[in-house]
Amino acid sequence: MLSGIKIVSFCHFLQGPAGAQYLADMGADVIKVEPVDGAHERRWSGADVYVEGISGFYLCANRNKRSIGIDLKSEAGKEVARRLIAGADVVMENFRPGVFAKLGFDEAALAALNPNLIFASASGFGSTGPMAQKPGQDLLAQARSGLMSVTGTPDGGPTPVGAAIVDQHGGALLAMGILGALVRRLRDGKGTRVEASLINSAIDLQGEPLVNYFAGGMTRDVLKRQKNLATWFHSAPYGVYPASDGHVVVSLCDAGTLAEALESPELDEVAGVDRYVERDDYARRLAGATARYRVADLAERFDRHGIWWAPISYYDDLLADPQLVHAQVFRKITLRGRTIHLVNHPNRYDGEVPELRVLALEIGEHTRAILGELGYAESEAQALLSSGAVVASRDDQALEKKAS
User: Fold this and answer.
1) What are the pLDDT digits (tens) for 158-202?
2) Choice among 25, 29, 138, 167 that is catalytic
3) Is 281 known to be catalytic?
4) Rg of the chain on CA atoms, in Å
């Protein structure tokens, strides 16, 4: 769908790379500009996971991108970047505010290079304001946005979500903004300045509870809830409940039907109460009722009575989940002799999952090809490589040494 759109990404960590990956999956030619020693996500990985030397962190957000390694502090490297920008539809960056400008790429310089450019930035707390220069990271945004305060239980205190959801959602919002800007340019011929931030992403994730909280004139006392309940603003039973061999979640449902499904006199007694006002007591009663059954027994009872419920799956359950298999949520690939699973692009287009066209395993894997596309002669490309203004993959370096 985005074939013919060229995007130059000066992004690292997760928010920016995730946003660029969404667009690359949809067919855009995304060129990932890396430092000569590689992007940060190549050099760090959660749980110290590396697949034949390739970081799991890198693998999660950098498919379908070509890689060029550039020293942006060298004048020759800056010139390569300028040529890339001049021919791009979109430039993306997620340095701390002001850093890209200090490298010589402020908005005026970008406009001079490419008047109709879409320039998209992702940051922690926005490009201006009292916190603009503060370090931005998923955990920090979860804390400052209030998200952690409504996650977990009153006994356990504020609890972070078990994944970098703010980064990932921020990447999706960044991609959405870029797509809107591309439509505007097709319609009006104008470029757009697109800005996304982790703090806004974290707030956006909480639209429903925040609107209810402020519109309802609530105070933080309302956030105290029985440990089974998932949120402060839903009526019981909306939450997590024990089985004798695991856990399930039960969503909104008719109280009488739920009592019947579990054959529970305790629940039948409170079927007529206001389940928001009495949510803690109701949740305690339901927990006692579900704990008597195995997950398989609850499944049969809940399905027969039309209860909205789900078992709590663990990661090692997911690859065999029939719905996830059907939906092709995971992609199996062989990477340097090892078979691993990647998470696929989340959408389907005309019923198909976007293909995996390229996976740049090496820093600067496509440097020579990209320099050729920019009009550099082979001798000029070789001079740039020799000077260190750009770097190529180890395979290219090996060829270079062999040639010399």
Assistant:
1) 999 999 999 999 999 999 999 999 999 999 999 999 999 999 999
2) 167
3) no
4) 26
For 123-155, how does the pLDDT look when each residue is reduced to its tens digit (9 = 90+)? 999 999 999 999 999 999 999 999 999 998 878
Which pTM was predicted? 0.94
Convert the chain into a string of H (helix), E (strand) and C (coil): CCCCCEEEEECCCCHHHHHHHHHHHCCCEEEEEECCCCCHHHHCCHHHCEECCEEHHHHCCCECEEEEEECCCCHHHHHHHHHHHHCCCEEEECCCCCHHHHCCCCHHHHHHHCCCCEEEEEECCCCCCCCCCCCCCHHHHHHHCCCHHHCCCCCCCCCCCCCCHHHHHHHHHHHHHHHHHHHHHHHHCCCCEEEEEHHHHHHHCCHHHHHHHHHCCCCHHHHCCCCCECCCCCCCCCEEEEECCEEEEECCCCHHHHHHHHCCHHHHHCCCCCCCCCHHHHHHHHHHHHCCCCHHHHHHHHHHHCCCEEECCCHHHHCCCHHHHHCCCEEEEEECCEEEEEECCCCCECCECCCCCCECCCCCCCHHHHHHHCCCCHHHHHHHHHHCCEECCHHHHHHHHHHC
**Dihedral angle sign, alpha carbons of residues 222, 224, 227, 230:** positive
> Which residue bears the tokens 């060229």?
6
